[in-house]
Target: AraC family transcriptional regulator
Amino acid sequence: MGEFSEIIFGKLVYSCAFEKYRGDEEFIPEHFLGFQLSGETHAFHAQGNTVITENTIVVVRKNQLIRTIKYPDKSGKYQFVSISLDQETLRQYAIENKIVADAPYQGNQKLFFESDDYLRSYFLSLAPYINKTKEATPRLAALKIREAVELLLQSRPDFKNLLFDFSEPYKIDLEEFMNQNYMFNVPVESFAKLTGRSLSTFKRDFNRTFGISPKRWLLERRLDEAHYLIRHKQKRPAEFYLDLGFENLSHFYFTFKQKFGLTSSEI
Model:
């Protein structure tokens, strides 16, 4: 049995699996707060790999790409619950509480891990909604989201400059970003947003930087990396094709032969 995810109320999502499950590449558009109820989540991102262990609280920053593998615990169950801290809710919270970000957040730019009894108790208090023994009204759901923000700020006051920074993403170095994130199989639109550009500006800047279209460059970059892994690391395509952003082996074999004139086994 694979993974299933269920929206319990509003922004609260419960994920469960009973065997190792590889998640799709995800573009994270909003900050979210999560709790690993059981099992482990192995997260792969531009900064490296992170293992989220059982009973861990995690804050994931918006506007990034993540790929996950989910591992059940010894009893055979994986459970993760997350609650999105969307910009609209955070804006309203900031207005009501007169909060203003006064400096760029200086902490870790990707993933944050905290061990906090109040936050852990908060997630455990959501069990009746997950188990369907209690139903949340829209008003109660809104209050639970605000409670999460309140507890998070109580635990880490410096997160004020993370959560309430509503400035638009600025243009970042395109070449550096693409070489760090080419392996994520997401739409070009996601790459554009993550680099602080509109789709049309992204395509124009991309062609100016690389001399070819984004889709063509992504394919070429992935194939070059595949060639390296096969020739110098003795890897088989089945071991890495998903990690390089290929959707299936058939597509990989076809494009590989087309580019190099040889099959992967002939290399």
The domain at 174-260 is CATH 1.10.10.60 (Arc Repressor Mutant, subunit A).
